[in-house]
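TICKET: design request
STATUS: open
ATTACHED STRUCTURE:
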């Protein structure tokens, strides 16, 4: 499938948004989905990206890429935090512009990660693509719910959702094309960047949101390990 696999998360984003037009999942359901997705992403990082970094010969490039990834995600977080302050800590009622820009940056980075990992390793890239597809599926739900809570008309919500989803393949195709032409040290740096960004996604977004509202139960927590196990089984089967 190659680079065309970057279309999968975009389709997942549209599906999630379409579902949200009819269904708003409860807190426990959202927590279970987020725990499961976090387990899938952690397994993808552990099984695919980290071993690739060990094969690299440029330690300084790996360290620089990882630190740059952390800095980039913290910058996105700071932008989102500024939006929450402007909206009096109620993101469902805050200004639409910063909210859309923040989501757009997140999706473009997700697409870039898909393209980079696909270019680095087709099999491993597809595991990462699947993990990110789950993440943006839920993000599509959350985005539509938030826009509707802000009073955005349905037609405009659909247009925004479609525009946001397009950022995934744009970032994905760019990452796929640029990675293949990059020198070895830069490839290692980019993979390290992707590793840091995915770890940030898991611990500072998915799990942080999953623990909000006191919706945690032993079942929702167990979903994290189920997601991790499923990826390991898929990886073992493919190998």
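STATUS: resolved
RESOLUTION: sequence designed for all positions
ATTACHED SEQUENCE:
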């Amino acid at each position: 499938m190659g680079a065309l696999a970057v279309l999968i998360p975009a389709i997942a984003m549209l599906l999630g948004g379409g579902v949200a037009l009819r269904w708003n999942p409860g807190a426990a359901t959202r927590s279970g989905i987020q725990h499961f997705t976090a387990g899938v992403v952690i397994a993808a990082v552990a099984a695919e990206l980290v071993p690739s970094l060990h094969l690299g010969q440029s330690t300084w490039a790996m360290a620089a890429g990882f630190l740059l990834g952390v800095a980039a995600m913290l910058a996105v977080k700071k932008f989102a935090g500024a939006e929450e302050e402007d909206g009096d800590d109620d993101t469902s009622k805050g200004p639409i512009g910063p909210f859309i820009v923040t989501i757009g940056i997140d999706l473009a980075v997700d697409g870039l990660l898909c393209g980079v990992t696909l270019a680095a390793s087709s099999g491993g890239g597809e595991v990462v693509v699947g993990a990110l597809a789950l993440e943006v599926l839920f993000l599509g739900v959350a985005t539509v719910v938030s826009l509707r809570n802000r009073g955005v008309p349905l037609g405009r919500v659909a247009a925004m959702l479609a525009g946001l989803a397009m950022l995934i393949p744009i970032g994905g195709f760019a990452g796929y094309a640029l990675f293949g032409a990059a020198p070895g040290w830069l490839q290692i740096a980019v993979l390290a960047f992707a590793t840091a960004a995915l770890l940030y996604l898991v611990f500072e977004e998915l799990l942080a949101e999953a623990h909000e509202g006191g919706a945690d139960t032993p079942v929702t927590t167990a979903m994290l390990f189920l997601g991790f196990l499923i990826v390991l089984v898929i990886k073992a089967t493919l190998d």
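CLOSING REMARK: The first helix runs from residue 7 to 20. Helices lie at 7-20, 27-54, 59-86, 96-120, 122-149, 154-181, 184-210, 218-238.
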